[in-house]
């Protein structure tokens, strides 16, 4: 166990002044939530905004609203390598997960495979599961012009923009909506447009380790009146945080303020039941409206996000220029046009090397981390959704990717240590 300076792999600081704003928000109540909503609508130039307890809660609500509009559709297409929260929200919404493999060099969809999937909406679905003998026959027999696809979810993984224009060109069915997963991309841009404004509807996460954090939180944005109306109907049936849960948020924000610092991060990291950094599939999360405490924590978010972006960009630029080796694949090519990342992904096509680098990082507290442990089709709770299907690229990527920290706690000394550690391990391979 390491009892010394340890970098978290990702961090969105919560400052004492944020906590004070949060407490003021508690006093202001609904007014604080309205302020946050209004600022978001203005910043993103979007008509409708809804605030929830998490990104997963936001996505679940969005999918349920879409499902209300198109009750005969129950499938949602996502990349086969992504955050486990995405399939967990789909399952929570009572829908089926469908996968498309990814491009190993962009982490976006494999667009050749995507175009085949989207142009073959009549492809017969999996046979009825044997444990559901009473289920009626699926309505989409191969010759019926009838699709069950409800939505496609492109993900800006780590902040790398997904090519949503290209996706849109492939979707010919107007009932299939694009739900833009901008959970990791708040403040990012693509071709001069804000990420989070490109889909029919989009969401951000304000969880720990996202671009901006209010302990937990989710934001939904849309310009579509029809979708907004359905969301409002659903939202009116969702409850608020209980007083106890709100107190827990206050305590968590104070703990985050203290323990995200590299000097103390080893404390929570060494407590096994916190399971920091573990990827867990869980479809039983809470779904509540955002509390005024969280809206208060977010007060001043535009400046804060801007400053965080500058720090993260500076660190990304450093990794791009200082780590040059035939063993390392970068996901950014041009230092003048770097995306707004929250963690800096690199790929090692040599497994042993990747393993050694992460182990060394554990010993030295360098904040280098694996990403998601497996492709989505291998999550044991949902493997039945994908019987007989394989997603080899997604599977391989899950074993080859790591991320480097780029948050504001990364110091010059950390940067030197990380660079030295990686080049030392890389040279041993040569
Ligand atoms: C974090 C995340 C989510 C879920 O957000 P939470 O606020 O953690 O529920 C969804 N999608 C992606 C890509 C994420 O990274």
Write a structural description.
This protein is α/β, with parallel strands linked by helices and 430 residues long. The chain contains 14 helices and 13 strands. It has helices spanning 16-28, 30-44, 55-69, 85-92, 111-119, 164-170, 225-235, 243-259, 266-269, 292-297, 301-322, 351-364, 392-400, 412-429; strands at 48-52, 75-79, 96-100, 149-152, 177-181, 189-190, 193-194, 201-205, 218-222, 328-330, 344-348, 369-370, 401-404. A seven-stranded mixed β-sheet has the order 1-9-8-5-4-2-3, with helices on both faces. Strands 10-11-13-12 form a four-stranded antiparallel β-sheet. Strand 4 (149-152), helix 6 and strand 5 (177-181) form a beta-alpha-beta unit. The longest helix has 22 residues, at 301-322. The model is unreliable at 124-145 (pLDDT under 50). The structure holds pyridoxal-5'-phosphate (PLP).
